[in-house]
Amino acid sequence: MAIATVDPATGRTLATFPPLDAQGVEERLRRAAEAFEQYRTSPFDHRAQLLRRAADRLTADREKVAATMVTEMGKPLVQARAEVDKCAKSMHWFADHAAGLLADQIPDAADVADSGAAGVRVRFRPLGPVLAVMPWNFPLWQVIRAAAPALMAGDVLLLKHASNVPRTALYLQELFAHAGYEAGCFQTLLIASGQVAEVIRDDRVAAVTLTGSEGAGQSVATVAGEQLKKCVLELGGSDPFLVLPSADVAKAAQVAVRARVQNNGQSCIAAKRFIVHEAVFAEFERAFVEGMRALRVGNPMDEHTDVGPLATEQGRDELEEQVEDARGKGARVLCGGRRPEGLAEGLGEGWFYEPTVLTDIDPAMRVHHEECFGPVATLYRAADLAEAVAIANDTPYGLSSNAWTRDPGEQGVLARDLQAGGVYFNGMTASHPAFPFGGIKRSGYGRELDGLGIREFTNPTTLWYGPEDS
Question: Which domains are seen in the chain, by residue range?
C-alpha cells in the first residue's frame, strides 16, 4: 500500500510520501538509542512538563488536526474534535499520575526479613526504544495512548503509522518536537509494512506494541517472539451488546446505535453483535432499527453528518461482501444493506455504506464469526441469560462487552462468564486512561492505560539490600 493521503469521501489522492530508505531508518534508530540514554534518567517532573506542553499544543491545534484526520480516514468532524480532546486530557492524566503509578513498591516487612535483607524494593525502570505499529481508525488516540505512558516511563518511541494517515503521523512528530522533547524521543517512520520486521529485529529496539488486525498482530508477534522481545497486542473485536428484561430498553437501543456507528463503525471496541432477550426483543428491534435508519450519511466535514465514508475502498468492499454473504444464506436485512444513493455532488466516488441491521443470523454466515468493520450490526434473539452468554462468547474475539441489566444477580453472572477484557454495564464501552484496556483470545494480549499499561514497557527491578546496608 502506498504511503498516501486519499480522501475517503471522494476517493481522490491528496498527497503521497516516499518511504524511508535503509539509511533513513538507520539514522532514526541511532537517534532513538542516543536519546534514550539521556532521557531515561530524567526526573518525572521534567517528563510531565514536556507532556503537558505537548497536550496544550495539541489543544491549540485542535481544528487543524481534526480536519487532517477527517480528510485522511473519513471520521465525522465532530468525532475528530472529540478525539483531539480525549488525547489532550489523557496526556495531562499521565503527566499527573505517572510518578505514583511507577513509584517503588515495598514488599511486606515479614517477607523482607524472611529473605535475610535489610530492605527490598521493586523499581520500574524504562526498557528503551519502543516501536509502536498503529492503525488508521483512531489515528491520534491510538498513538497517544501508547506514547503518553511510554514517555512518562522514560522510554522513547518510534511510530510506524498506517500508510493512509501519513499527515497525522508527521504532525505527531512535530507536536512532540515543539513541546521540547529531544529529536530522538518521538520519531515517525514513514515505512512500508514490509520494513517493520527489520526494525523489530534491530537490537536497539527494546519492545513493540501494535494495535491493528489479527493478521498484523500475528506477523509482529512472530518476529518479536523470535527476538525474545516484549510485545503488546490490541487486535480486532466483535463485541457483544446484551439486553435483558430488566434493562431500560429505550435507552439501550439509543446507546446501541451510537455504540455501533461510532467512528463510522470502524472501532475495535464498537458493539457489533446485539443479543436481546426474547421478552424485550420486539421493542428493542423496533427502536434500534428506527435509530439506525435515521442516521445521516454524508460529507464527514459537515457537522450534521452522523456516518461518513469507510476509510478505504478495500474496507468498504469487504463489508459489502460480508453483508451479501449473509443475505444469500438467509439473513433478513432490516435496514441498509447497500451503498447509499443521492449523496451530495463530489461524494459519489467515496467509500460510503448505509447503516445496516441484519437478523436471523446463522453460524454459517461470515458475519457470525468475522468482525464487521463498518456500520453493520447483527441482531440475535436469546431465550434466556444462559443462551445470551453462549451467543456472546461464540466468537474468536474477546476485547470488550456491553450488558444492559439492572438485576444484580445477572450482573454477577455476566461479570464472571463473559469472555472479554471488559464488561460495561448499562453503558457503552469507552477507554479511559485510569482503567486498563485490552483483550483476550484473538483480540490480543497485554494491557494499555492505567498502571498495568504504563508498566508493560518497564523493567520491574528487584533491589535487595543486605544486612550491612542497614
Answer: 4-235+443-469 (3.40.605.10), 239-435 (3.40.309.10)
